[in-house]
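Board notes (copied after class):
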Amino acid sequence: YIGTSTNGLSTLVRSAPAYIDDRVLAAGVAETHTVPTGYQVVLFSSDCNFYARPNATAAVPAADVTDGTGSEQNPAAWYLVGQVSPTVSTISLIAATSCNISLSFYKVP
């Protein structure tokens, strides 16, 4: 949402998500989350460090990964519809410790 604050300045505040899922991860166990139909953006929030990987199984790295198959640590947000990269239909999540992750999904007008 783009609006104007009481002092006349422009402000950008995201709207409430239309769809929220929560995952409770056990330490070292990857879980696969299916992207709900019709949503183009996901915002992540967690109470731990976690790794995510689109359309494949995430892993906590134990060594260097230099072939493009690594998992992203603590992503803030992903655009899920392919333009430069493939469309994301599943998100794999894993953490070294037990934790909770929220996935807030948005539809782009």
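Comment from the instructor: The longest strand covers residues 99-106. The chain has a mean pLDDT of 91.
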